[in-house]
Amino acid sequence: MDDQENDDDLFRCAICGVAEGDNTNLTSQTNLQTNATVRCGHMFCNSCIDRELSRRREFPCPICNTPVKKVTLSTRSLDDVQCEKDTSWRRRVMKVFNKIESDFPNLLEYNNYLEEVEDIIFSIVNEEANAEECKTKIKAYEEAHRSAIVIRQSQRADEERAIQDRIASEQREAERRKREWKEEEAAIAKTKRKFKQESAEVLLGEREEVSAELKAAQMQGYRNELKRQRQGKSSVTNFVSPRVREP
Question: For residues 32 and 22, what is the distance between their CA atoms, to the nearest angstrom?
Answer without folding.
Answer: 10
